[in-house]
What does this fold into?
Amino acid sequence: MKNLNFRITIFILLSFLLVISCKKGEKNSGPQITVEDVPWDGDPNSIPESMRRANPVADPNAIKGGRFRVYSHQYPKSLNYYLEQFTTTAEIFRMMFEPLTSYDPISLENIPRLARSWEISPDKKKFTFYMDPNAKWSDGKPVSAEDVLFTYQTIMDKKNNTAIFRIGMDRFEVPEVIDSKTIVFTAKSIHWNNFDEVASQLYVLPKHVFEGKDFNKINDSFPVVSGPYILAEAKPGRYVKMIRRGDYWQRAYPFNKGRYNFDEVFFKVFSEESIGFQAMVKGDMDIYAVYKAATWVKEATGEKFDKNWLVKQRIYNQKPIGFQGWVMNIRKDIFKDQRVRKALAHLVDRKTMIEKLAYNEYEATNSYYPDFYLGSESSKNPNEIIDYNPEKARELLKEAGWIPNSNGILEKDGKEFSITILDREKSTEKYFTIFMEIAKEIGIKASIETTDLAAWSARMDKYDFDLTWTAWGGGIFKDPEPMWYSKYADEEGQHNIAGLKLPEVDSLIESQKEIFDVKKRHDIVKKIDQIIYKEHPYILLWHLENTRLIYWNRFGMPTNPLGKYNSESFAVDYWWYDKEKDNKLEKAMKENSSLESYQSDVIWK
It folds into this structure.
């Protein structure tokens, strides 16, 4: 690690033209760094036409500079997104590496990134990408088609822990490099997501840096990047420090004006949400997305909030909504019977949990795609509400052959009904405790095993669990294959962690692959949802239809603070440090006075 940090420091000093100064009163993480942008001497006519316009969600008056400290819940086992799909890992990785195309933040149309242009064959099976001649790695070498090929080969190498990415890449022949700036992907079959699979979901790696190395061991060493930030320091269990690149190759593209504003971004790690919140209120962080209802309702109060030093804001937009729940490992004999899984769902008193423990902040979830049924669409959800009903649970368990023994413990074929709940944070333990007490009353033996995120993630890759709490993000375009296709139930590291195998679902997944009409495709996904819901691989819990943010009142931001489709990660890209606002904040805190009021609910316009 010493050598890595030394190399990064030298690289920063030489390439970024950094001016380092100590800022009096700055909390943690040492002296603040100021990045000076390197003048761009490229040809303006070489900028792709669609990148010469203004970004529709950015503020062109945004100011570069400053430090932004972001809360991260637990330290991931890897900062390599291809090895670990943790939220913080994804955020850090996309700051360093880039795909061939990105999305317009409003229309969702593909726009250039590493590729300046592309062609799609009439049969929608061949995609030709032409690399942007301006695209360069941070060491000055051009990004080439060979880098794209290398990334594909790295993912497809079965020695690497990249199984989840092979699902999509396996649909392609080995890409053909035409020349250093041209690469062709040819699909083996038609799939609506083929283009985006290689265009916007393949983050390109530098071949000259990673070739010949054990990819499974590349966790926090990324000395050469193409993106707007570089990893400057990683302190396991504490923080990850990112520094803006003053020589980022797209820095002069008009579309990026108002983006990538912070000179430093810290992802600060706290093992528990409560400790992270305390650090936020103390001033050791700048932004905190609240995922715990009690924090939002009961703890985010007091003088700092009353005087508007700390902003407490709900953001409503059109971000995709995923689901969370307690997944049961159907590979285990005890969970193979659908009646058992449904019985356990009847033992979860979601209504009381939402009312008493979650302060009515959430909506109960009865779909694996809850954003299909928001607002006025909720009445169209055909899925049965699984209510709290211990007696119904007893009946189902009895039907499944589970009978109380002389000790009152349910037993079948000489084996007691005993499960271990795998947990990774203390804040969820109270929910499991309520469940365990009810389960005990009907003869189920349940215990809790608590571990950290890294160990939990490693065990999930191997499906080494009985029951655990997990949450999945939503996608704008729904692809049910990674999570629900039968063939991924037995391959380690996949998203079918429940181990569900349903031929009817497999058939529907196959049927939607060649449908390019989003509505028609989503109609099929709704059918898949209904079938899976009746199988109860998860005990679905609840969801939130907005983003709850707390941040110090020292930042500028666009009119829509999180854009149209984004959550809190948007702030890293589009907010900025406002010195004038910070001075007002410091003055107000010194004089114990209030700042101007703000809009507590912000709705996408």
